[in-house]
Design brief:
mainly beta, 6-stranded antiparallel β-sheet, 78% strand, flat
Length: 373
């Protein structure tokens, strides 16, 4: 279930317990704190000269001041006769709510009375208009023609001088050396040996005593093939370079004059349509101010006699019921106050009327704000 008590330790109990409040003279009085955060008082108390009734324990103090009513009895008592007025009926009367102004005729005077209306014009402003003061020559388009308009610039080359250069016109053929090759040249011979055959022999070496097993394993007693050699002449050669003859082709040139060029900007043109104009006479205008008019109704007046009036102040009245009173005498008991307010402060001090008996037994107040505010 939700944590409804928000930390209130009294939520699931009928009473938290019995506590004792401190009286102004140092005595004690019991109070009870319920699970609904209600403080119950169980004794009638008389306030001291400053109105203090008791000081509550910490658990029974509210967060903000709490006030409740109780019967109070003062120790002093007596009686007094007081004369008061009592209403026995009403009569109709008038009261002034304010004042207004009225007119009083003091004579006659001549005045004008509107009997009809006619329409007239009234200037409401001025506007600027144009007035011809002369004529002048101007151009008027009578046709169109095609013309060129520059739309950009590109780079071009322009001849600024000339220089001599060679131009290839053909080839000429002649006999000559066209290259060289590397060849081997015989310089002589030397004697050498060449294999002419072979024979097989079996001549194992004499095994010596004291050979190890490894030495004995390497000892061979198989037949060996022996080559038979003969004398031969071995040629001696050296490398040499030898020219190769053939037809040699050489290019034939002639002197020509070539231009020296430099960059120049050249306009890029496009066709546009331009008007064909002819002279015409046009008026020369000057600004002038002209009135702006509007129609208004003008009254037609006739002479009449009107009264001359003067202003006077008159009261504004309204009807009211006026009570009819009579005097009566009342006997009052001095010192008897049927009910007053008791204040419970956050510091625990409970205050009332100084020196009076407060009937607190059975009274209670809540300290809910202590846990929920």
């Amino acid at each position: 279930m939700p944590d409804a008590d928000l930390g209130n330790p009294n939520f699931f109990k009928t009473f938290l317990g019995r506590f004792e409040a401190v009286l102004p003279d140092g005595g004690k009085t019991p109070v009870m704190l319920t699970a609904m955060n209600e403080v119950c008082l169980m004794q009638d108390l008389t306030a001291d000269s400053e109105g203090l009734l008791m000081t509550l324990p910490e658990q029974c103090r509210p967060k903000n001041p709490v006030r409740f009513a109780c019967v109070v009895e003062k120790s002093a008592s007596g009686s007094a006769v007081v004369t008061v007025s009592r209403q026995v009926g009403t009569v109709k009367g008038s009261v002034q709510d304010g004042h207004d102004f009225a007119a009083k005729r003091s004579g006659w005077a001549k005045a004008s009375l509107q009997t009809d209306t006619v329409t007239a014009s009234r200037q409401v402003g001025t506007a600027t208009a144009s007035k011809q003061t002369d004529t002048a020559k101007a151009s008027r388009q009578t046709d169109t023609a095609i013309a060129s308009r520059q739309s950009g610039i590109v780079k071009a080359s322009r001849k600024t001088s000339a220089k001599n250069a060679s131009r290839y016109v053909g080839t000429a053929e002649t006999d000559g050396i066209v290259g060289s090759v590397d060849v081997l040249e015989l310089k002589g011979a030397v004697k050498g040996a060449s294999k002419t055959g072979s024979v097989r022999i079996n001549a194992p070496g004499k095994a010596s005593t004291g050979m190890t097993a490894a030495q004995y394993d390497g000892y061979s007693t198989s037949d060996a093939e022996v080559p038979l050699l003969g004398s031969v002449d071995i040629p001696v050669v050296s490398a040499a370079s030898k020219d190769v003859s053939g037809i040699v082709r050489t290019p034939v040139f002639e002197d020509v004059e070539v231009p020296v060029l430099s960059d120049v900007p050249v306009p890029v043109l496009e066709n546009v349509e331009v008007p064909v104009l002819s002279d015409v006479d046009v008026p020369v205008l000057a600004d002038v101010s002209v009135p702006v008019l509007e129609d208004v109704d003008v009254p037609v007046m006739t002479e009449v006699n009107v009264p001359l009036l003067s202003s006077i102040e008159v009261p504004i009245l309204r009807d009211v019921d006026i009570p009819v009173m009579e005097n009566v005498s009342l006997d009052l008991e001095v010192g008897s106050t049927p009910e007053t307010v008791v204040t419970v402060n956050p510091d625990g001090n409970v205050t009332g009327i100084p020196g009076a008996m407060h009937r607190l037994n059975g009274r209670a107040f809540y300290v809910v704000d202590r846990y929920y505010l």
